[in-house]
């Protein structure tokens, strides 16, 4: 069993070091993308603090389709260019949105969400999907969060075989 009790989201100095150590352990010797995505969603959901949804939308036949996640049931399909997720996928760029209600076209899957961080998953130049993290707290995600989580997505992509997922 994995023990998350040593990871403290209020310990800003060590949080991402601890998370990265944990991620390395989760991905060690396992290349199944669905398993690694699922464990990473759970790890982030239970440790980040102040997040109400963590999950993936995976690119399938030209649209984003809901993948493994933690949180309430969510919208299943998102067109490229729509919402925060579809826009991040289209631009192939992370979107860190302090207040989703100010984002034109935001898709409200969970009405409680106020801030959102969406990181595109691009491996060898191919867009595979996005990691989406939602918070009820406005301006929840800092630049440090963004960089650290982009780095963790890179680890996920490096560690996993996505051939049968998309
Ligand atoms: N809010 C997202 C939709 C996905 S849910 O937040 C899980 C968007 O605007 O793309």
From TrEMBL:
SMART domains, A to Z: GAF
Residues annotated as domain GAF: 29-164
Top-level division of the source organism's lineage: Bacteria
Protein name: Free methionine-(R)-sulfoxide reductase
Gene designation: msrC
Assigned keywords, A-Z: Oxidoreductase
GO cellular component terms, A-Z: cytosol
Pfam families given in the database record: GAF
TM spans (from-to): none
Enzyme Commission number: 1.8.4.14
A molecular function (GO) term: L-methionine-(R)-S-oxide reductase activity
Organism of this sequence: Petrocella atlantisensis
Record-linked Gene3D superfamilies: 3.30.450.40
Record-stated family: Belongs to the free Met sulfoxide reductase family.
Enzyme class: oxidoreductase
């Amino acid at each position: 069993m994995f023990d998350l009790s040593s990871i403290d989201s209020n310990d800003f100095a060590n949080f991402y070091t601890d998370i990265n150590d944990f991620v390395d352990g989760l991905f060690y010797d396992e290349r199944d993308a669905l398993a690694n995505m699922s464990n990473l969603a759970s790890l982030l959901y239970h440790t980040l603090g102040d997040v109400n949804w963590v999950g993936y939308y995976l690119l399938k036949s030209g649209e984003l389709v809901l993948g493994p996640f933690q949180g309430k049931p969510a919208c299943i399909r998102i067109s490229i260019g729509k919402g925060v997720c579809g826009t991040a996928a289209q631009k192939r760029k992370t979107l860190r949105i302090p207040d989703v209600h100010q984002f034109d076209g935001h898709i409200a899957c969970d009405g409680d969400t106020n801030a959102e961080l969406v990181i595109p998953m691009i491996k060898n130049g191919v867009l595979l999907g996005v990691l989406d993290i939602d918070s009820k707290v406005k301006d929840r995600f800092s630049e440090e969060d963004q960089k650290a989580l982009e780095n963790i997505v890179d680890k996920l992509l490096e560690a996993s075989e996505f051939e049968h997922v998309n």
